[in-house]
Amino acid sequence: MKRFKPLKLSFFEHTGRILRHWFTPSWRLKNLLSHDQLEAIAQHIEASETQHTAEIAIALETRLPWSYLARQAHSRERAWAAFSKMQVWDTPDNNGVLMYFLLAERRIEIVADRACAQVIDEAQWKAWVHTLHTAMHNNDLVSGIKEVVTELTLVLEKHFPQLETNQENRVSNRPQVF
What we know:
It is a single chain. With 178 residues, this protein is α/β, with parallel strands linked by helices. It has a single domain (11-177), classed as Diaminopimelate Epimerase, Chain A, domain 1 (Roll). Helix content is 50%, strand content 12%. The protein has helices at residues 11-22, 28-32, 35-49, 66-70, 75-85, 114-119, 122-137, 141-159, and strands spanning 55-61, 96-102, 107-112, 176-177. Strand 2 and strand 3 form a beta hairpin. Helix 7 (122-137) runs antiparallel to helix 8 (141-159). The chain is globular and about 55 Å long. 30% of the residues are buried. The model has no long low-confidence stretch (mean pLDDT 89).
């Protein structure tokens, strides 16, 4: 597990963060993506994974658990925890990718396993996060996710092509809600 330094927030910033998380209702996730939209994303990821050996996963969370808030943990730490919990790292080629959305802070983190992190440069990851932020701001997260998955697929099939026709799907393609 990666080690992260805690955020250095003042008392007022820390209190504001706690209140923002506390007052972010869990039903906001249902307003963000409907059941049909979640299924459309899952189908798009499933189609993508027929082209390469990588695993693509999506995690959505309304707010951080109290243990993360109390120790001023960064959202990236929670994204890595979701990456581990969902076992996105469990691929033979070490090429899993997780898109993590934290609604209370409007944070988007993309976490990639070692092999993916080596073949895709930091500027590209930042561009994809920007695409997702723009889509979320425009209330069209589904098309933003599909766009990023499509672009990611092009890169992954170049570096990790699918050679077997019956590759095992190790991670659920349906976005996970924490």
